Amino acid sequence: MNAMSVLLLGADYYGTLAAARCYGKNGIDVTMADDNPQARGLYSRWVTRKLSHPSIKSPNDLVDWLVQWGERHPGTLLYPPNDHLSWLFAEHRDRLGKHYEMYSPSEAVIATLLDKSRLHEACAAVGIEVPETHDLGPEGANSPIVSRLKFPVLLKPRTQIFMEGGVKGIIVEDRASLGPELERYRSMARFNKVLTDKHPGIAEPMVQEYLTAAETNIFSVSGFVSKDGEFVARAAMKVLQRPRKVGIGLCFEGREVELALLDKLQALCKHIGYHGAFESEFIVMGDRRLLIDFNPRFYSQMGFDVARGLRLPLLVWHAARSDRSMLSRELDKAQSWKATGREVYCHKTMLDLVLTLQGLSGQMSRSDVKRWRKWYADHRSAATDAVRDPEDQKPAMIDAMQWVSHFAKHPRSFVRSFVLNR
Predict the structure, then answer these.
(1) 205 - beta bridge partners?
(2) Given 65, 82, 345, 411, which is the most exposed site by the fewest CB atoms within 10 A?
(3) Residues 6 and 76: beta-carbon distance below 8 Å
(4) Maximum Cα–Cα distance for the chain, whole Å?
């Protein structure tokens, strides 16, 4: 058995980079694999071995590759960085588990968490609120439910698992626009057969009430739950995203964990049977907390939680190896950490770009640009960056180069997202 090694996939994910840094700093040998040789995580100083694997668009080939590598390196830890691999590892848990140390629950558990329709049913069972959401069914825009919708609404996929095309969500302004937007969605959204063969109908979209609070009030609770129900968490507020209406988080501020919400998340994990690392997102509406996502895996801003004393990669490491003593010790450390109230997380390169371009285009007022620059200056000493690290500088350089390349290849998307904030 290779007693101190981990295989990380998804080298372009910021969560994978955070995991590599955490493992490497704690003496665990890091092998990283991706089908993109330019992926940012591969350039971390903590990665000792770089591999190329089959495209994730060929999931069965990828599983075969993983099995072959695991046969040669038994006992290596394998843990997912994204929805696709979270589901794939669970689906092939028995086969992969013969060679790897894993901490993946069953496919049914992962499918429940990543399929919004099934997740909402589970939330109802434990008293967690969710936005009003409906399946349109085969009738689509002619479904009887449409007459009861309050526009605008959000047209969104039931899941992101093996979604090979499409968008996170489409805002539909009125009933007349629903039919055309539904056609546009279906023309864009494509799912790999490995998922739809097992879950027919999962490719159909859902229609959800559009809540403006989602633009500025997203509260995240992330953490770890063991098979025995031990639970530790951190909380944060997403304070800036791009584009602003339906977008990716740029800046987060640390918050105190709300105990009532924590109890409900514990109940959800117990009800479904989930164990492992997680990130959940809630829309804040006054005293209400509406769950919109539960990610059963490593996640983008995991580096923020590692910096706040919650070393999730190590918790997964000890739990997968059934090392009760070390797991308890790491849980105790995480529970004893104390916040200063100034902790923030930011992708500084993207923040600078958004402030400059939206300031020039008029999409952000001069006073708002000034406010966000002051926000970063005030928190700089306690800020965790998505990719920048003075002890591991190459990933940030590759990250900047990748974004420049992306902008050159997709200028319309760049202008729409970064300049026009759409």
Answers:
(1) 157
(2) 411
(3) yes
(4) 61
The torsion of the CA quartet 366, 372, 377, 381, rounded to 10 degrees, works out to: -170
Locate all alpha helices (DSSP H) within 211-347, ordered by sequence.
259-272, 302-307, 312-320, 324-336
Q: Any alpha helices (H) in 127-247, and if so which ranges?
A: 175-188, 193-196
Phi-psi region of 5 (alpha: psi -120 to 50; beta: other; left: phi over 0): beta
What the chain holds in terms of domains, given with CATH numbers, is: 5-102 (3.40.50.720), 132-209 (3.30.1490), 212-345 (3.30.470.20), 347-419 (no CATH)
Rg of the chain on CA atoms, in Å: 21
Q: Are 81 and 277 a contacting pair, CB within 8 Å?
A: no
The helix/strand/coil state of 333 is helix
pTM of the model: 0.94
Return all residues near 129 (Cβ < 8 A) that are at least 6 apart.
123, 288, 289, 290, 291
The one-letter code for the residue type at 280 is S
Whether the CB-CB separation of 224 and 89 falls below 8 Å is answered with: no
User: What is the length of the chain?
Assistant: 422
The sign of the dihedral angle between the CA atoms of 170, 241, 223, 49 is positive
Beta carbons of 96 and 102 less than 8 angstroms apart: yes
DSSP 137: G
User: Can you give the pLDDT of all 422 residues of the chain as single tens digits?
Assistant: 356 899 999 999 999 999 999 999 999 999 999 999 999 999 999 999 999 999 999 999 999 999 999 999 999 999 999 999 999 999 999 999 999 999 999 999 999 999 999 999 999 999 999 999 999 888 889 999 999 999 999 999 999 999 987 677 899 999 999 999 999 998 888 999 999 999 998 988 999 999 988 888 999 999 999 999 999 999 999 999 876 655 678 999 999 999 999 999 999 999 999 999 999 999 999 999 999 999 999 999 999 999 999 999 999 999 999 999 999 999 999 999 999 999 999 999 999 999 998 988 888 899 999 999 999 999 999 999 999 999 999 999 999 999 888 888 888 877 777 777 66
Map residue 373 onto helix, strand or coil.
helix
Type and span of the H or E element at 352: helix 348-361
Residue type, 297: R
